[in-house]
Amino acid sequence: MEQAGLRAESVDAMALPEQLVRCRQATLDLVEGLTEADATVQSMDDASPAKWHLAHTTWFFEEFVLGAYLPTHQPVDPRYRFLFNSYYEAVGPRQPRPLRGMLTRPSLAEIVDYRCRVDDGLERLLCGGALPEAALALIELGIQHEQQHQELILTDLLHLFSMNPLRPAYRVAATAAADGGTVAVAASHAAWIGFDGGCFRVGHTGSGFSFDCERPAHQVMLVPYALASRPVTNREWLDFIADGGYRTPSLWLSDGWARVRAEDWQAPLYWEQRDRHWLQMTLAGERPLDLDAPVAHLSYFEADAYARWAGARLPTEFEWEAAARAQPVAGNFASSGLFRTRPASRDGQAPLRQLYGDVWEWTSSAYAAYPGFRTAAGAVGEYNGKFMCGQYVLRGGSCATPDGHLRATYRNFFYPHQRWQFSGLRLARDRG
Amino acid sequence: MEQAGLRAESVDAMALPEQLVRCRQATLDLVEGLTEADATVQSMDDASPAKWHLAHTTWFFEEFVLGAYLPTHQPVDPRYRFLFNSYYEAVGPRQPRPLRGMLTRPSLAEIVDYRCRVDDGLERLLCGGALPEAALALIELGIQHEQQHQELILTDLLHLFSMNPLRPAYRVAATAAADGGTVAVAASHAAWIGFDGGCFRVGHTGSGFSFDCERPAHQVMLVPYALASRPVTNREWLDFIADGGYRTPSLWLSDGWARVRAEDWQAPLYWEQRDRHWLQMTLAGERPLDLDAPVAHLSYFEADAYARWAGARLPTEFEWEAAARAQPVAGNFASSGLFRTRPASRDGQAPLRQLYGDVWEWTSSAYAAYPGFRTAAGAVGEYNGKFMCGQYVLRGGSCATPDGHLRATYRNFFYPHQRWQFSGLRLARDRG
Amino acid sequence: MEQAGLRAESVDAMALPEQLVRCRQATLDLVEGLTEADATVQSMDDASPAKWHLAHTTWFFEEFVLGAYLPTHQPVDPRYRFLFNSYYEAVGPRQPRPLRGMLTRPSLAEIVDYRCRVDDGLERLLCGGALPEAALALIELGIQHEQQHQELILTDLLHLFSMNPLRPAYRVAATAAADGGTVAVAASHAAWIGFDGGCFRVGHTGSGFSFDCERPAHQVMLVPYALASRPVTNREWLDFIADGGYRTPSLWLSDGWARVRAEDWQAPLYWEQRDRHWLQMTLAGERPLDLDAPVAHLSYFEADAYARWAGARLPTEFEWEAAARAQPVAGNFASSGLFRTRPASRDGQAPLRQLYGDVWEWTSSAYAAYPGFRTAAGAVGEYNGKFMCGQYVLRGGSCATPDGHLRATYRNFFYPHQRWQFSGLRLARDRG
Amino acid sequence: MEQAGLRAESVDAMALPEQLVRCRQATLDLVEGLTEADATVQSMDDASPAKWHLAHTTWFFEEFVLGAYLPTHQPVDPRYRFLFNSYYEAVGPRQPRPLRGMLTRPSLAEIVDYRCRVDDGLERLLCGGALPEAALALIELGIQHEQQHQELILTDLLHLFSMNPLRPAYRVAATAAADGGTVAVAASHAAWIGFDGGCFRVGHTGSGFSFDCERPAHQVMLVPYALASRPVTNREWLDFIADGGYRTPSLWLSDGWARVRAEDWQAPLYWEQRDRHWLQMTLAGERPLDLDAPVAHLSYFEADAYARWAGARLPTEFEWEAAARAQPVAGNFASSGLFRTRPASRDGQAPLRQLYGDVWEWTSSAYAAYPGFRTAAGAVGEYNGKFMCGQYVLRGGSCATPDGHLRATYRNFFYPHQRWQFSGLRLARDRG
Fold first, then answer.
1. Is it the case that residue D177 has pLDDT exceeding 60?
2. Which of A162, B349, C235, D176 has the most neighbouring CB atoms within 10 Å?
């Protein structure tokens, strides 16, 4: 029987084992080359150590899949339930979030071993005959969950390395190769692409995977609107700075202006001006700012202030979704190995460029339940619902998002002050 | 010419002078009987001293009306621009909000004198011939603004007196009289009142006053829903407490549960248990809890947790508005002099009882701009727009709201952790 | 029998009633002219409202004297035990210190009435026949305690008024008169006055009153030293500022430098530069800085940094005491009505000028128990002993200290970051 | 020429090279077996990563010795001056202390290489002919400095491992061996050992090394006193707990009681009660409490409260020094490899047992300058002097102190709330 929030009927049971193996391997690939220390340190409360991500995604499978469906499974280490539970109150107490970086033990090797042993259990489970739909649904959820953490491994490492005055690079070689593949061109002036108003169906309806927060599909009314043909670029952001954007209270939300002053914001996160040149900390180390690439590492407050400065506004999440639905899900995702934004390519034919990948685009929509939203039963029901307060929806994925993870109905969400994700903006405005 | 956000054409220029005089007097009436100290102390950052409210509402007229339309007006005291500006960045720097309680001078008498002198200016202005529509619109805005502060005077005094172990009463006599008029009856079981789904027009359209955030009117899609026939009562809240509501994390939003633990919430604000009886601090001093009256002084977090516990949910602001539009705006407002919630009267015929007055009802809607929202030009444009982040909409007014101030489209808003207003909830649910 | 810490044998029982009456009246005189609001607001955690001082000093007599020695005494209001207990854990719970300013009730008039009723009780007690020595000792302690709070009333009001952009004056008239009596002269260069080393007896031995922390007298070894003939002046402090004193980390204690940066100290508390002139907030309102008057409102950190800058050091409390013992206790105390520092007069003959009065002089001595120190039995034993940690001793009294309160062995103490007292410094150095 | 604060004439130039090599190797030995992560994570602001200690002690030699006396020396990495400067303002800006744990790079291997290269420089310098006395003095200071950090490596690792629910052990094997060597015996009742009063010379006078804060020697007056024959034991501390020591405000300094309540102290740091048994986190992992061993990991506040509870007091640092001077410097130091306190051995003949080693003994003396104290010229003058505020002196060394580092005049110092050192207490009382 279906659990509310998990839609088991849609799982392709044939493809699942291979997807699982690929996903699990992809996570390991991300930590290749990290030192034990790189994988252990927590650079702020919002971020988690790479090692913790490795273990937590594994615990997720152990707790929700093996624990429920593989009766012969013995916990690899009963203490891991405490160490690697993220926020599931129904599972029990856990290592306090700000102290995830205290876990110098278990070692990275021990965590990799933990992964192997849980993978073994999953393999046994998948080979052991037809699984209930609910079990398949949980495995699929575990894969999607792990993909989310793959992105977080990258953004959290970037934050960690940014705190180090040596500005270490995570992946230089891969980046260089990827760089070569891009012919950097000056971003052309963004155009306004118009869309009709009316009644639109939003939310997930297809047969593929979706998170509970993307459902149920429902109708919304839109008034005619326009979206910019591409995200705001670093070059445009420099204009905002030069025009006193960070010093003009009338451009800002009240809470945003308070934040600007309290933390002395003068540019996006990871920007640094040296000898009158702007540098940006990236996963390839500190680099000159790529002027034609989409601006990233913005808070909602900054995105909103820029839009006001530009005489425009942020789109709602439904304006974004209605416009995106017709476009193929393709763009500068993590598979490029670049791990930073890049200028729009010349040859794209879609009117809306860089809609997927590059940067998560802040929308003006508060993260909230869709009409008729139901959480899943049990601890896994805490996955999304309990965070529907105080956060804003971002759409479209980023250069750190795993390929294949995105879709038009996908809803990411962060607090309006948070900046360490690859978060940018695309302008919107009313029409007519 | 009309300023965006101010709709001058609708002002009834004939009635305005009298409305103004009545409103200004009503504010003074509220501080009758307060000591100089009562009127000066600030009990928390969110609250302001009564004296400051008296002065700020006056400054609002002086700054935005006299300053712009009465050329002969000399500032009563140029330093008041600093002291009594609330948050208008465009006007200039101001006394920091947490330090409003430092202003033991000017005295209450000096502030009353300030009020008189600005009132004189307004009278001169209104008698001096036909005023531009924009001026009339600003005067009307000033009246509505002052009414909002009338409510805050009451809620801020309640908070102040609650910090005093002597539990002083603000108005005992008036309350007693009002009490006499109420035949307390046990609240009957709440019924579910059903409403159809479909496309509804929300937002303000009529000719009367509305704030910018209530406009423009626009269409929204609603799915069929039901609202409880009355707000949740204190008696029902006791059931929630007895059932471990404040100790059950699965009932709470993540941020809400963090707040519960950090501040050790065990009951609504102002409740105190003594010798196994529950008392409630009110503007008439500490009183036994009235079990059949609507529960007040809830945070959004508590309202949301209760709804989940009850197997229901909070209404959206548009569900509330669609249901309320048909009902007369009547209820337990401030004119009763009771200043606390009271049980639903027996003789009401409306299916939705206590929709207006008694308690502001938390909705699940984040406070956001309506499609096509425009702020007014100039400093007055900071009135509402810059607060559209992180707050939730409440509807319906309370026992501290001035009569005549409310309407079906009225949007109040507070942060989800705030509890010092008369804030309660009405349950909603989907209709299958 | 003597209580440890209270030396009853020394009380002059004849003089006590008159001293008591004079002291009690002097406190009331200090609040003459304050508004109810002035007397109620608390401007920071370290300060208390004047009304609270009035009540607390009264509670001290009620709790420790009437409660113990006047069996017929009924508490004036049993709730005052909670409201006006400062820090006596043995007496019981109390209004949290940061919330003393919430007490808009009882009113000032009610507190004055409370004072009268306790005074009546004390009069009855004193007229009722020979009192035990311990009772007399507690009354004397109550008088000395109240004198300490008289000084705090002044310093706390100064802080309150300094938070008000209107910069209200506490007592202009009295000040003007006092001003007239002073012929302002340029302070001459400070001279070094040398003192021999050797073994000295310090601490209180005479028959008059002393606090427990001044006892027992004991011997200390001093090496030859010199003291400056007068305290550092405002003019000299300007040199320190001009020389980058507040920007030079090598001058500062580590904790001091952290404070300088965290709070952006650039001058003593209450100094403000406007149009290139320095003003100082005083109890007579904002005034031009008196260049030849001793600098006041310094933290220990500032005093210590200045001394290092000047190639000198702070004296120990025993160096100060050994030098002061020979001098009459006379100076610019509160009776002058000036309530601020004034230049050394020309006609003084003592080699050490302004040793008493004007400013409390920071010493390098941590506030600690003398060898053999005993606290009094009971709650009153909490008077001094429990504060012997983290604070530094100041000597000599200030322009806000009541006349007759000081003596050579008197030890005042504050935390090294505190600045709202009239605290200054006198330089010392080694000799030979 | 002698720098104030550095006494070069006393350095034994012959022995220095060997001492240096031994000291440098001892530090490396301490990190043997640590993972890269163990050596990198910072568990609190007060603690530093082991890797940082390794680098900082090396930087100390590079900055102050090679930089000044080896002209051919090129900085190993110029960025290390920023990364590994601890608090020397005169050297320049530095990695903020709370962010020392962000340095996942340079790696442990790179730091070890840094050490080798600086060691090479030092060797070249020492072989290059007669060095100025000042250079020798700085090398000796560097050795002593590194020994201090050897102790901190141990205490900081203990804190780090205590934050890990797995309770990892730092050195089990070594500990077991050491354990075997101790015949645990029930601690006998502590005796009081009396000492005469009078004038005593304290501070360092001999020819060996001493820190600037131990000088100049000077005379102090002591009144007759007694010291307990051994430190307070864990067993005795259990009596304090059982008697409500942590719940009785009258036992505590005011600041101490505030800390007890704010941090909910119920036992010394690292104690944990499980199933009615007390365990203690040690460098050998979690262990049953050794009842007869000296209690460790106390704040000054706890030590002071215990002494009051026991009807005694803490000794002054000079009482301790006068008593200790006659005793050989021997005890349970780090060379035992035990790294925790152990019961007094039966066969000791000294009247004062465990005076050296086991636990640093809190004294009632605020850390302050001795009369005539001078800091060294230059950045190295910041070594001790700028910390002489708000801290208390501890004497005698601990089970984590390197052998040979201690002497009777040695002054350690910490803030009164700090508990992560091996800090305990020995009772004192007045005599006669």
1. no
2. A162
C122 and C60 part of one domain? yes
Residue C114 and residue C240 in one domain: no
In-domain check, residue A4: no
The model's confidence at residue B176, banded by pLDDT at 50, 70 and 90, is very low
Give domain status of residue C5, yes or no: no
Same domain? C198 vs C106: no
Determine the structural domain holding residue C56 and report its residue range. 16-166
Q: How far is D414 from chain C (nearest CA, A)?
A: 12
Least confident residue range of C170-184, C221-235, D356-370, D391-405: C170-184
- DSSP character string of C13-31: TTTHHHHHHHHHHHHHHHH
Nearest chain C residue to D369 by CA distance is C364
ipTM of the complex: 0.95
What is the amino acid identity at position A405?
A: H
Residues of C with Cβ-Cβ distance to B82 under 8 angstroms: 165
Question: Up-side HSE of residue D306: CA atoms within 13 Å toward CB?
Answer: 33
pLDDT 10s digits, B251-283: 999 999 999 999 999 999 999 999 999 999 999
CB contact under 8 A, B166 and C95: no
* Minimum distance, in Å, between the CA of residue C30 and any CA atom of chain B: 17
Does C168 touch chain B if contact means CB atoms closer than 8 Å? yes
Sorted by sequence, the CB contacts under 8 Å of residue B378 that are 6+ apart come out as B3, B90
Dist. CA B37–CA B34, nearest whole Å: 8
Q: C93 CB near a chain B CB, below 8 Å?
A: no
Would you tell me which residues 303-342 of chain B have a C-beta closer than 8 angstroms to some C-beta of chain A?
304, 313
Residue D304 shares a structural domain with residue D189: yes
Contact B372 A219 (CB under 8 A): no
Type and span of the H or E element at B61: helix B50-61
Which among D152, D105, D108 is positioned nearest to D418, based on CA atoms?
D152
Q: Which amino acid is at A57?
A: T
Question: Contact, D52 vs D94, CB < 8 A?
Answer: no
Tens of pLDDT, residues C231-242: 999 999 999 999
Q: How many domains does chain B have?
A: 2
Where residue A170 falls (left for φ over 0; alpha for ψ -120 to 50; beta otherwise) is alpha
- Asked whether at least 3 C-beta pairs link D and B within 8 Å, the reply is no
**C137, C166, C195 - which closes a domain:** C166
Whole-prediction pTM: 0.96
Chain C touches chain A, with at least 3 Cβ pairs below 8 Å, answer: no
Select from D199, D254, D366 the Cβ nearest to the Cβ of C366: D366
Closest CA to D97 of D138, D46, D131: D46
Q: How far apart are CA A401 and CA B298, in angstroms?
A: 40
Select from C386, C387, C431 the residue whose CB has the most chain D CBs within 10 Å, as the one to mutate to test that interface.
C386
* For A158, nearest residue in chain D (alpha carbons): D102
Chain C 18-37, residues with CB within 8 Å of chain B CB atoms: 35-37
Query: Which residue among D366, D371, D416 sits closest to C223, beta carbon to beta carbon?
Result: D371
- B44 at the C interface (CB within 8 A)? no
pLDDT at A60 (0 to 100): 98
Asked if B90 is an interface residue toward chain A (Cβ–Cβ < 8 A), one would say yes
Residue C10 lies in a domain: no
Q: Which of D196, D222, D254 to mutate to test the interface with C (most CBs of C within 10 A)?
A: D254
**Is residue B421 in some structural domain?**
yes
Contact A424, A362 (CB under 8 A): yes
Single residue among A166, A193, A225 that ends a domain in this structure: A166
Asked whether residue B120 falls in the same domain as residue B210, the answer is no
Whether residues D387 and C254 touch (CB distance < 8 A) is answered with yes
Contact in structure between C138 and C65 (CB atoms under 8 Å): yes
Same domain, C184 and C322: yes
Domain identity same for C84 and C158: yes
